[in-house]
Design a protein that fits this description.
about 280 residues, TIM Barrel
Length: about 280
């Protein structure tokens, strides 16, 4: 069964919370298969993440996946945090290593903690068995710290072997990169669903920033169209929605197990794309 899911991050202040409430209402009206809630760098949004996860799971009654990372977390802290989530009724986790602190050149393993997501996944399985459904991250265009695409697939296989039930990819703009990645993963024996992550471009200044963050390839025709209309914000948003809709159609027609939308806590683009796909 195909899944359609949305990623949110906890609002940072009261004004952002009001805006978030308006947008999330429109998105949840679409009845997604599940939603995910991010976990800030170094656990910086821990309290807000946990509060939002509990609200969505228990008040809104939507299937909610809690992100959790090993950054700044010992085994004891991880056990305590996962127990809190379990007691909230959370049954689904996205277990990630997490990014190095801003300005750091590499990830620093916390004392009595973990250096890799595969270790976090294995530890969670050792504590809770099958009580959680566990998701992991995947990089169609190779994790930025991997020495090669081959090494990246080997590391991904470690996550799956440790107990990963599904994978969600980093966003990308060239579907051929996703198809090639899935083929390599399957050749390595990875059989769990690999859900493509889609990020609709809504502002021109997002382009270079997102490319820098993810290393994603931008097709020349898409880049040129955005460049041509960069002074027209409404046109840029329309181009981004049209491109993302075409991406999703192609992915679904080609057998992708679903689509995961990086919403940036906004609703317009995702709502329009989703409604177009349902026609």
């Amino acid at each position: 069964m195909r899944t359609f899911s949305f990623e949110f991050f906890p609002p940072k202040d009261e004004i952002a919370a009001v805006d978030f409430g308006i947008n999330i209402g429109k998105l949840l009206h679409l009845s997604p298969s599940f939603v995910t809630v991010t976990y800030g760098a170094g656990g910086s949004s821990r309290e807000r993440t946990f509060a939002l996860v509990e609200y969505l799971q228990n008040k809104v009654k939507i299937n909610t996946v809690a992100h959790y990372t090993c950054v700044e977390s010992s085994r004891l802290k991880i056990k305590e945090d996962l127990t809190i989530l379990k007691n909230m009724g959370i049954k689904r986790l996205m277990l990630l290593r997490g990014d190095p602190h801003q300005g750091a050149s590499r990830f620093h393993t916390p004392p009595n903690g973990f250096a890799h997501a595969s270790e976090l996944i294995d530890y969670t399985r050792s504590l809770y068995g099958d009580q959680f459904t566990i998701g992991g991250g995947a990089y169609p265009e190779t994790h930025p710290e991997a020495l090669s695409a081959e090494e990246d697939i080997l590391n991904l296989k470690k996550k799956v072997d440790a107990g990963c039930d599904f994978l969600i990819t980093q966003f990308f703009f060239d579907n051929s990169r996703y198809y090639g990645f899935v083929a390599r993963a399957q050749e390595a024996g990875i059989t769990c669903p690999i859900i493509p992550g889609i990020l609709p471009i809504s502002h021109y200044n997002q382009l270079e920033r997102f490319v820098r963050i993810s290393g994603a390839h931008i097709p020349d025709s898409f880049r040129q169209e955005l460049e041509t209309h960069k002074a027209n914000p409404e046109k840029i948003a329309q181009i981004g929605r049209t491109f993302a809709t075409a991406q999703c159609r192609d992915l679904l027609l080609s057998g992708a197990p679903g689509v995961h939308f990086y919403t940036l806590n906004k609703s317009r683009a995702t709502v329009e794309i989703f409604e177009s796909l349902m026609k």
